[in-house]
Amino acid sequence: MGFSRYSIFSVIAEALRGHSGWGPAWRDAIPAPKYDVVSVGGGGHGLAAAYYLARHHAVGRIAVVEKGWIGGGNVGRNTTIVRSNYMLPGNAPFYEWSMKLWEGLEQDINYNAMVSQRGVLNLCHTDAQRDAYARRGNSMRLHGIDSELLDLAAVKKMVPYLDYKNARFPIQGGLLQKRGGTVRHDAVAWGYARAADRLGVDIIQNCEVTGIRQQAGRVLGVETTRGFIGAGKVGLACAGHSSQVAAMAGLRLPIESHALQAFVTEGLQPLIDNVITFGAGHFYISQSDKGGLVFGGDIDGYNSYAQRGNLPTIEDVCEGGMALMPMLGRQRLLRHWGGIMDMSMDGSPIIDKTPVQGLYLNAGWCYGGFKATPASGWCFAHLLARDEPHEVAAAYRLDRFAAGYVIDEKGVGAQPNLH
Amino acid sequence: MRINCPYCGERGSEEFAYHGDATVTRPRDGGAGPNAAWIDYVYLRENPSGLHRELWYHASGCQSWLVVTRDLRTHAIARVELARSVALARMEPS
Ligand SMILES: Cc1cc2nc3c(=O)[nH]c(=O)nc-3n(C[C@H](O)[C@H](O)[C@H](O)COP(=O)(O)OP(=O)(O)OC[C@H]3O[C@@H](n4cnc5c(N)ncnc54)[C@H](O)[C@@H]3O)c2cc1C
Ligand SMILES: [Zn+2]
């Protein structure tokens, strides 16, 4: 039997007995015939929802059904950046709530998720961009979110190693959110899984949902590769595969699936203390605690379920990096990979009921859903338990496209590959 | 990924711009008809995990619009047609 609580004492005790006593972090559950709530998708969002349901709402028996293994989806593929530098009213309070939950997460779930508020710096390269950042920063402050507009001297002092002589993309300043940073992504999945398991949630891996059984417009449960599982309520949190799973219930979503790539170099001495983004293209970089430089850029730009991208995007990402930080040219890439994300038509997510009674949808997280994990789980749990939206997620309605209330942070219209 | 343009031959995908699902059709009612058709056209997508017919524009080439049929699981391209031919065929009474 493993320790029920992780602490300095359990670490010392285990060190003394050669780490022979750590038990599995969660049970490998066998599906029961019926649950009160089934969360489909064991990514960050599905696990967080199950945890907060068990923790804060009395809904009975809960299961998370995952087709692969915990941490194998986007939750373990992202570049780990968390921030709440959003501008629009529907978004800002939600992402700030997520940031607040990150700040207390490790104590709450008793798991070291390496939450590191190292600051996120968005660089600007033109006057217009500085104006836009000033506006965004002011909007954030009006929502009670920290933000600071830095001039060139302040940026130089903070990150002296950038290319300040670049005539084409001169760095003029930046918008800094000090409370932003990084969180070890797979620890988030494992930590929520363990915490949910300890509250009695069944975590069922290697179990793919293949159908949604309904009767007279009401959900009865899910067909899976491990048999039928009855459910009072079903919450879908399938990230890049939302369209497929929703189609099992006859729904057509405002979503396209796209691939995003990420990259990591060989380990280096400490070099980059913060998260830095290049504003003249799309490039962002940070350094993992192991020393690798973790970076990424734009999505590949066309529908894909291949979980791998193509070379033109790799070239584009690396060009962005070289324009910002020429010393990157000397680094060797260790790995690169891709993940499939559900790009929504306005670039914002959906947390809502569906026309099928008892079926709920959590989708459309695009390339920014990792930072949303705690608040998404929190608000999805609220919706599943009470049948009404949580106030910070009230704008994430499925019918907002039809009603004209889109939340288009970038202002590019119904073109998912541009968000 | 390389796309075989009917005019230019096989070219790298970076020469093309992507415009998404080619199977949705713009309602011809000028806005007079029910909203549902417009919502479907502007926002809702099949997003299949398999063959997908999609619009690509040969921006850095001949500037034709193409309808490419591609397997979204492998990126393998099954077919490339001129969007103009596809549109004309669609208008023909069947
Ligand atoms: C390369 C990359 C970099 C990113 N960087 C960032 C970043 O820096 N910051 C940020 O905020 N966001 C980032 N994101 C986005 C973020 O990772 C996602 O938005 C978020 O993880 C999605 O939620 P999730 O964790 O629940 O998804 P997932 O972990 O993908 O969970 C969904 C799960 O559903 C399961 N599933 C699907 N279909 C079925 C089925 N039929 N039956 C059962 N289970 C099913 C899948 O197997 C999967 O495990 C990035 C994404 C990628 C790909
Ligand atoms: Zn051409």
List strands and helices in order, with pairings.
The complex is a heterodimer of chains A (419) and B (94).
Chain A: H1 8-16, E1 34-40, H2 44-56, E2 62-65, E3 81-82, H3 92-109, E4 120-124, H4 127-142, E5 148-151, H5 152-158, E6 173-177, E7 181-182, H6 185-198, E8 202-204, E9 209-215, E10 218-224, E11 227-236, H7 242-247, E12 255-267, E13 275-278, E14 283-287, E15 292-303, H8 311-324, E16 333-344, E17 350-353, E18 359-363, H9 373-386, H10 400-403
Parallel strand pairs in A: 1-2, 1-11, 2-8, 4-13, 11-18
Antiparallel strand pairs in A: 3-7, 4-6, 5-6, 9-10, 10-11, 12-15, 12-16, 13-14, 14-15, 17-18
Helix pairs in contact in A: 2-6, 2-9, 3-9
Chain B: E1 2-5, E2 9-12, E3 17-21, H1 35-42, E4 51-57, E5 65-71, E6 77-82, H2 83-91
The complex binds flavin-adenine dinucleotide and zinc ion.
The average pLDDT value of chain A, as a whole number, equals 96
Unreliable residue runs of chain A: none
Which second-level CATH architecture of the largest domain in chain A applies? 3-Layer(bba) Sandwich
Structural class, judged by helices and strands of chain B? alpha+beta
Q: Biggest sheet of chain B, strands in spatial order?
A: 3-4-5-6
The rough form of chain B would be described as: globular
Chain pair forming the biggest interface: A-B, 24 and 25 residues
Roughly what fraction of the amino acids of chain A lie in strands?
A: 25-35%
The name of the CATH topology of chain B is Folate-binding fold
Q: Gap between N and C termini of chain B, in Å?
A: 35 Å
Major sheet summary line of chain A: 8 strands, mixed
Number of domains of chain A: 2
Overall residue-averaged pLDDT value of chain B = 93
Q: Would you identify the CATH architecture of chain B? A: 2-Layer Sandwich
In helices, the fraction of residues of chain A equals: 25-40%
